[in-house]
Amino acid sequence: MEKRIAIIGAIKDEIAGIKKEMRITNTLRWPTGNAFAGTWRDAPIVLVRSGMGCDRARRALAEIAGKYTLKRIISIGYAGALDPSLKVGDLVVADQVVYYETLKSYSLDGELLGTMPEVARGTLLTVDQVVATPPEKKALREKYSAVAVDMETFALAEETQARNLPFASVRAITDTADQELIDCSHLVEAYGEVSKLKAGWHILTHPGDLKSMIDLGKHAKTATASLTEFLGRTL
Fold it and tell me: Which fold has domain 3-234?
């Protein structure tokens, strides 16, 4: 059976650039995610939307590992900056990932993604909820010495180590260290995506949040373009 690179993002926007370019030959679905097998830039891949959070990421990896022969795993997606020097669209390749509750950590194989000078490297912190305010971000940086924060990478690092698979993570910054976010956790559906219906209702009832949500959407598009272009060069 052909070995594939698994590229795993939490939400559809994170993987949209790759999906648009790839030739899809098979689709796999489960309640909280889906996967698309095929080729991208002549490489055999399986592109995965896992849903947000560690539990959904673990389930997604189990689903694809049971269906495809995998040769390495790459976690991609958005991240919040903890390092004040990082800007929207900047890329972070993690040297290690730390889980905030247990302080357990894993070293990651950043060399899988090359040594390009424009990419930041450092510790990625995985948490279970959105880090919304600049003071929260500053406190996490001081406590964990991390450069960015996400919600899935630690779970994938743990699972890939158990499966003895090479693993790397690259994240694109969508919010800077001094930017305040809207906490969208109440807008997330069971399948791990933000509900457009709930988001629309939130704006109707909290019109002051409209500009922040528009800005975040623009930042997400910038981040997706950065991820897609970078992975296209490194695969």
Answer: Rossmann fold (3.40.50)
